[in-house]
Design goal:
Blueprint lengths: L2 E6 L6 H10 L4 E5 L1 H4 L2 H10 L5 E5 L1 H8 L9 E5 L2 H10 L5 E4 L9 E2 L5 E2 L1 H12 L3 E4 L8 E2 H5 L2
Parallel strand pairs: 1-4, 1-5, 2-3, 2-4, 5-8
Antiparallel strand pairs: 6-7, 8-9
């Protein structure tokens, strides 16, 4: 299970991922973990069309990714894992996905009341998830593009 990077970004595949991150980490596979996208053939098709040429796109719901994280059928190749929110990421980590650092882009959900950084807003449940992920010792780095300065979210979410 060669994971090149795990990124939390509510937009999933978009320009920063296709032009920046997939190249920077030399990803062969973009693995989108999203119940919403996996349930929609149209959204799945749009995500596949947005991917750079030569990169395989897999769209899984969270349960399928959880099963794969515990030793199931994980994609081969250097995989860039994309999730839309910290709640889904936490479910993967609890299932056994080995993550030491997470790259964070734009994260905004309906009902987000907590502005953690310019890029990251959270609901009460998401804030609690960020805190639990940080409590596991996972480095949470907010960084839109490779080469830009990182901001450590761990310091922001510390109780």
């Amino acid at each position: 299970m060669p994971i090149a990077m795990v990124r939390v970004d509510h937009r999933l595949i978009h320009g920063q991922v296709t032009l920046g991150w997939s190249r920077a980490v030399r990803a062969d596979v973009l693995l989108l973990v999203s119940d919403r996208v996996a349930a929609s053939p149209l959204d799945t098709s749009l995500m596949e069309m947005a991917a750079p040429p030569g990169i395989t796109v897999r769209v899984w719901d969270v349960e399928r990714a959880r099963a794969a994280a515990t030793g199931g059928d994980w994609p081969s190749g250097r995989t860039l894992v994309l999730v839309a929110n910290p709640l889904d990421l936490e479910r993967l980590v609890e299932a056994g996905l080995d993550v030491t650092e997470v790259n964070i882009g734009g994260v905004r959900s309906d009902g987000a009341r907590h502005k953690l950084t310019k890029e990251v807003h959270a609901t009460d449940d998401e804030l609690a998830a960020w805190r639990r992920l940080a409590g596991r010792g996972i480095k949470l780095s907010v960084q839109w593009l490779p080469g830009q300065r990182r901001k450590l979210l761990n310091d922001v979410v510390a109780p």
